[in-house]
Design goal:
42% of the residues lie in helices and 15% in strands. The radius of gyration is 18 Å and the shape is globular. The protein is α/β, with parallel strands linked by helices. Bound molecules: ligand TUI. Ligand TUI binds at residues 22, 45, 72, 74, 96-99, 117-119, 123, 138, 144-145, 147, 228, 230.
Length: 314
């Protein structure tokens, strides 16, 4: 049995978060993960506040366990959604792709546990000072929007910079990754890509198939030129985008090229125009399973490794 301070703080059985994947992590997936003993998280992404409120209501109808909402801070609707999570008394809010400082006071005053994704030590220190309950240290192995640092480097640096519980993310998909995260000082993990194969994950079947077939070199990062690097599966879309990026396409045209590409992947399974966000560990995802089995399996996989690690210590 692995139980850590984040389990006690949030009232969850296993220290496993499901990442807030835009267009993907809805109320149904979040409830399935929470019912499995982890922390399910609804992704706001770029969606309007009404969508998020609707998904929160769906999650509440499917689980009585705690769940969270992830606010993508570059969203034009971030301010509205910041309000919705307070009104709906969502117990946990995670943030990504930016700095949530301006919301921290209102959220903590409302009793919300705020757990920001940090991609640097400076941000870890700032969020600790502003009253975060825990931090997610996400390395660039992850899918979607990526920072500069790898999980291997970011997690121990963040752990040294804060006394808060640290959740490791980026490149974790099985018991070995969970055990490694604990070795680096984390007391929990967040996984996104691994949950793309969950039975309760409603992405287009073509998306799931692409994840199951991915190998070690299947992902690439595009979007550095506009300052928003994003990791996705190599595809017609990502190759075309990379060519345009290196070929000197003006910024507004690059922006237009990417608009709607994630929806095309998630909803339509469009293999030509879709942007299939995925982390490097897509290569480890081999079967479709219930979300609850994924949560249990990664923790049960970590236990013998953590016990066995002592064999090297004389
Ligand atoms: O946010 C993510 N992953 C995402 S967001 C997303 S939607 C999107 N689409 C197109 C362009 C950009 C985003 C898809 N995937 N992960 C959490 C994360 N947050 N990773 C890195 C960060 C981060 C980066 C900078 C957190 C804080 C930060 O602070 C910068 C600052 O303002 O100082």
């Amino acid at each position: 049995m692995i139980q850590t301070p984040i389990c006690d703080m949030l009232g969850i059985k296993y220290p496993v978060f499901q990442g807030g994947m835009a267009w993907i992590a809805d109320g149904k997936l979040a409830a399935a993960v929470s019912n499995g003993g982890g922390l399910g998280i609804i992704a706001a992404g770029n969606a309007p506040a009404d969508y998020v409120r609707g998904q929160v209501k769906i999650a509440k109808s499917l689980t009585d366990k705690p769940f969270g909402v992830n606010i993508m801070l570059m969203s034009p609707f971030a301010d509205d959604i910041a309000q919705v999570v307070t009104e709906e008394r969502v117990p946990v809010v995670t943030t990504g792709a930016g700095n949530p400082s301006k919301y921290m006071e209102a959220w903590t005053a409302a009793g919300i546990k705020v757990i920001p994704v940090v991609a640097s030590v400076a941000m870890a220190r700032l969020m600790t000072r502003l009253g975060a309950s825990a931090l997610i240290a996400e390395g660039g192995e992850s899918g979607g929007h990526v920072g500069e640092l790898t999980t291997m480097v970011l997690v121990p640096l963040v752990c040294s910079a804060t006394d808060l519980p640290v959740i490791a993310a980026g490149g974790i998909a099985d018991g070995r990754g969970v055990a490694a995260a604990f070795m680096l000082g984390a007391c929990g993990v967040q996984m996104g890509t691994r949950f793309l194969s969950a039975e309760e994950c409603s992405i287009h079947p073509t998306y799931k198939e692409k994840i199951l077939k991915a190998n070690d070199l299947a992902t690439m990062v595009t979007g550095k030129k506009l300052g928003h690097p994003v990791r996705s599966l190599r595809s017609n879309f990502s190759r075309r985008y990379a060519q345009a990026e290196f070929g000197g396409m003006p910024d507004d045209e690059l922006e237009a090229l990417a608009t709607g590409a994630l929806r095309k992947a998630v909803v339509d399974g469009d293999v030509d125009g879709g942007c299939f966000l995925a982390g490097q560990i897509a290569a480890m995802v081999k079967e479709v399973q219930p979300a609850a089995d994924i949560v249990r399996e990664v923790i049960e996989g970590a236990e013998p490794i953590l016990r066995g690690a002592m064999k090297w210590v004389k």
